[in-house]
Design goal:
ten-stranded mixed sheet, single chain, alpha/beta, about 10% strand, elongated
């Protein structure tokens, strides 16, 4: 026996099969199928039915698969899509789905009104439509359970009317009065398809009660697939009944031809009233639950108001909003026009449901292990066929619908929604990344042309990271990355280059704060990652980690040391420099002036060695990384680059031409300045204007020179060593 939990009290038959069956065997079957047969002919109509059913069955199979893998909440298709592809995509589909289901109710009420007006032509049709809507509202407000139980009685009436139809005359023994292929004089084939398709959207009503089912994983597949199989047989049988019982002109001109051809016309008319009323009731029960689920996740304005439920679990506020929308549709639309709008929206929903399952199948995630499995080709067909049919019906309408959903997605993305449960989007992007990584590794090396800063920042305390982040951001923004390594020192705590006497507990507390700080930096649109390492001393942590990171597909290419070079012993610094060089990782040591800092964040000065004048211009240089960093910083600071060189007066013109060629070949901004200093390097650096940042390129063999420059205490320096994997001329 199925266990009831909370308000969950419906089974596969009354909670899924009956709503699906009654929504499919409704207004289209009784009031529009005759018109379609008269226009499209026997084979044309069967083609429409089979095509529509094929899309619906693939979606039904996809729903059956995914519902046996996740816990479905309220909201039906919206819940499924949100749990798989995220709230943004779920909401961008769920909002139009709610409108579509509300319009579906109006469609069914219009059908009810047609039959009622035929029986009672003196009754005002507008009053009839409003009264029917009010009765539906009353039934739902009293109790959804009563509404669902009322469907069982309606199901019996509809089934009886079908029997009355098929027992009428000896149609099965007569000759066909309708051609195999119709002339489609009044409506094209895809227009007829759009008119028919709402018949099979009962699938959405079948899962609309997902929040009230005792065991959705078992009941949704069983109820949906059974209903689809039986209703498909009924529709095809009805095509032959109509074709063998009336001429095309009769079928096209009389929407109630089915009742007139049956053995018991009054019973059929009663069945049509019951079927259209039931379809309206079924969908009216489902639509507010989509709205209520949207409100719960704050996807729509007034979400708290929409999400409220009564003590019996009824979404009363959502019901009233839905009712207002239905009444509005009744006053401005008609059955045929509403049907075509519904078709496009439901096809987009079907495509998204199939896409959700296809992604899960393709990713090969361990978490995706449904007890009901379908082949990948099935869901792929569901996606492609749904999209293709949308544009076959109307290219303009298709683009308009998809563009509207895209705008909704952009709006919801900007809302930065909080989702309690995860979805498969990260897995999808990881799969794409793995594919891209494999492709990148199989292609010829081109690191110089595609170089972008991927900065590796080792820190012990949060204050070090915070104090240096402005410069790091200026280097990597917008397309670079930052990898932060939190170092937990177990020994040699006093050999801390950050010059902070910390205990082991203090270091651990600092490391615990780093993830939140890194996450905060990530919110500035910089891709950041974080990891920790435990080591005896700082140098050991760096050399080991650089070796590990270098083996990654996208390793860091700049090691950023956030301290003055003098804060670490020369032998330790040399070990770090040699390790970085060996692994082809650039090095940037930031010697930040305590008071000046980065000044006004405008000018960047790069000091080029005069030894470069004696080499071939296109030979290997050792200032490429320095210039690339200068360019990135200048771009973000909106300032200017000053390239400087110290040479004797006799080489002034030669140096100027060299630097001008660098500016030209490097495609640097036009406001880049060149300054030639006719004095000794140390004096020129000491006497130079403070600027905002002075970048000093160095080679491993002249590390001591960099340390000597660091003794100048009136500027902020960035000492930069090339990795040979970058090229400022590329």
């Amino acid at each position: 026996m199925e266990k009831q939990t909370g308000s969950r009290s419906f089974g596969a038959f009354n909670g899924v099969f009956v709503p699906t069956f009654l929504s499919i065997i409704g207004v289209i079957l009784f009031l529009r199928l005759g018109y379609i047969v008269g226009e499209a002919g026997i084979l044309g109509t069967i083609a429409i039915i089979l095509l529509a059913i094929s899309v619906t069955i693939t979606t039904g199979l996809a729903l059956s698969s995914i519902t046996t893998n996740i816990n479905i909440g309220g909201g039906g298709a919206y819940s499924i899509i949100s749990k798989t592809l995220g709230l943004e995509i779920g909401g961008s589909i769920g909002i139009p789905l709610f409108f579509a289901q509300s319009l579906s109710v109006a469609l069914y009420i219009f059908g009810f009104g047609e039959v009622w007006h035929f029986l009672f032509p003196l009754h005002n049709l507008t009053y009839v439509l409003v009264i029917v809507t009010l009765v539906l509202i009353l039934l739902i407000l009293i109790s959804t359970r009563i509404a669902v139980r009322a469907q069982l009685f309606i199901f019996v009436l509809v089934f009886s009317s079908l029997i009355a139809v098929f027992l009428g005359t000896y149609w099965y023994a007569g000759a066909s009065l309708v051609p195999l292929i119709g002339e489609t004089k009044h409506m094209p084939f895809w227009g007829l398809f759009a008119l028919f398709f709402p018949a099979v959207t009962g699938l959405m009503a079948g899962i609309g009660m997902s929040g009230e089912l005792t065991n959705p994983k078992k009941q949704i597949p069983k109820g949906i697939l059974t209903a689809l199989g039986i209703t498909t047989a009924i529709y095809i049988t009805m095509v032959f009944f109509l074709a063998n019982s009336a001429t095309p002109a009769q079928l096209i001109g009389d929407s109630l031809i089915i009742a007139k051809l049956s053995i018991l016309g009054p019973v059929v008319l009663l069945g049509i009233l019951a079927a259209t009323f039931s379809s309206a009731l079924t969908t009216f029960v489902a639509a507010p639950r989509v709205l209520q689920a949207l409100g719960e996740n704050s996807l729509i304005p007034g979400g708290k108001f929409m999400s409220k439920k009564t003590s019996r679990g009824e979404p009363r506020n959502a019901i009233f909003i839905t009712a207002a929308l239905i009444l509005f549709a009744l006053f401005i639309g008609n059955l045929n026009s509403i049907a075509q709008v519904l078709t496009v929206i439901f096809l987009i929903t079907y495509a998204t449901i199939n896409l959700s399952v296809l992604i899960e199948q393709t990713l090969g995630l361990v978490a995706f292990r449904p007890t009901f499995r379908v082949p990948r080709l099935v869901t792929l067909y569901g996606v492609l066929s749904s999209i293709a049919i949308i544009f076959l019906i109307s290219v303009i309408g298709g683009f308009a619908a998809i563009f509207s959903i895209f705008l909704l997605y952009i709006y919801l993305t900007k809302r930065k929604l909080n989702q309690d449960e995860g979805d498969v989007r990260s897995g999808l992007f990881r799969a794409i990344s793995r594919w891209a990584a494999k492709r990148a590794m199989s292609l010829p090396e081109s690191s110089k042309h595609i170089w972008k800063p991927n900065v590796f920042v080792p820190v012990i305390t949060t204050s070090t990271l915070s104090g240096n982040f402005p410069l790091i951001k200026s280097i990597v923004y917008p397309s670079g990355t930052m990898t932060v390594l939190g170092i937990k020192l177990t020994e040699n705590l006093k050999k801390n280059p950050e010059e902070k006497n910390l205990t082991k507990n203090q270091i651990e507390d600092e490391l615990n704060q780093l993830p939140n700080l890194v996450k905060k930096f990530g919110e500035t649109n910089i891709f950041t990652s974080f990891s920790t390492v435990e080591a005896k001393d700082y140098t050991e942590a760096l050399t080991i980690t650089m070796g590990v990171l270098k083996s990654q597909v996208f390793p860091p290419n700049v090691l950023f040391l956030p301290f003055k070079p003098a804060r670490i012993p020369i032998y330790s610094l040399r070990k770090i420099v040699n390790s970085a060089k060996k692994r082809e990782i650039g090095l940037a040591i930031f010697d930040r002036h305590t008071e000046i800092g980065l000044g006004s964040e405008k000018d960047v000065h790069v000091w080029i060695s005069p030894s470069e004048l004696d080499k071939d211009f296109y030979a290997e240089r050792f200032f490429d990384l320095a210039l690339l960093i200068a360019y990135k910083v200048q771009t973000n600071w909106k300032g200017k680059i000053v390239i400087r060189m110290c040479v004797g007066k006799e080489r002034h013109n030669e140096a100027k031409r060299y630097l001008q060629k660098i500016v030209y070949e490097s495609r640097f901004p036009q406001n880049t300045e060149i300054k030639i200093e006719p004095t000794a390097f140390m004096k020129a650096v000491t006497d130079a204007e403070e600027g905002d940042l002075h970048i000093i390129p160095f080679r491993p063999d002249n590390l001591e020179k960099a340390l000597k420059i660091a003794e100048i205490d009136n500027k902020s320096f960035l000492f930069v060593m090339d990795s040979t994997t970058e090229d400022v001329l590329a």
